[in-house]
Amino acid sequence: MEKIVSAKNERVKQWKKLQTKKGREKAAAYLIEGFHLIDEASKNNAVILELIISEDNRDSEKIPDLDEKTVLVSRDISKQLSETETPQGIFAVVEKESVPETPILDKPYLFLDNVQDPGNLGTMIRTADAAGFGGVVLGKGTVDLYNSKVIRSMQGSHFHLPIFQGDLMDWFDLFHKGNIPVYGTELNEAAVSYREVQPQPVFAVVMGNEGNGMNKELLEKTTKNLYIPIKGQAESLNVAVAAGILMFALTK
What we know:
By secondary structure, the protein is α/β, with parallel strands linked by helices. It folds into two domains: about 1-95, CATH 3.30.1330.30; about 110-250, SPOUT methyltransferase, trefoil knot domain (Alpha/beta knot, 3-Layer(aba) Sandwich), CATH 3.40.1280. The chain is built from nine helices and twelve strands.
């Protein structure tokens, strides 16, 4: 097993570049950290290009059997690669997931319009996974799917369902052509309580930007706009919490 002890090593420099969006796009790969995520990647047949183990974990029984791809690194390099408060000393370089050219529209979908908080994005994808959704579409302005905070928040859910990226207008058109409802989330005069909508097997629900809500042009093309009645004194709900309520409530 190869061992790297110098942070100036060329491979270490390449791994560090994966901590940036530009570096991930150039390599078409990203870095995951921790035993749980690596186990999820392995179980779901993700393409693991390299497995990076801190010398502290050399004899751990949890390490996947990827000898030819495994590199041992010093504790110092492990700390430099980690973006968590309590590093586990295990990382993997994973090839970015491919998505189907033609989406299968037999389950609900989550559309995300300019969602910018990594924790919110990761939580919503994880919730869509839990609610049995068929896919998630990241529209313009949405934070990078492979941001380290997004990866940690998803907890491996991006291995379970396709995550598309594209113009939501095109996705609206696709759903409208199939007579599939697309629900917006905006409290306006035409909005109805989500409780007035019958659960159904296939639909899309759109969640907008944390501060500004949905794009106005998209709002005009929704089937209906839904709101969640608030009984207490809070002015609004966190977007990920609202998405969770709607995804489970609307799904048949």
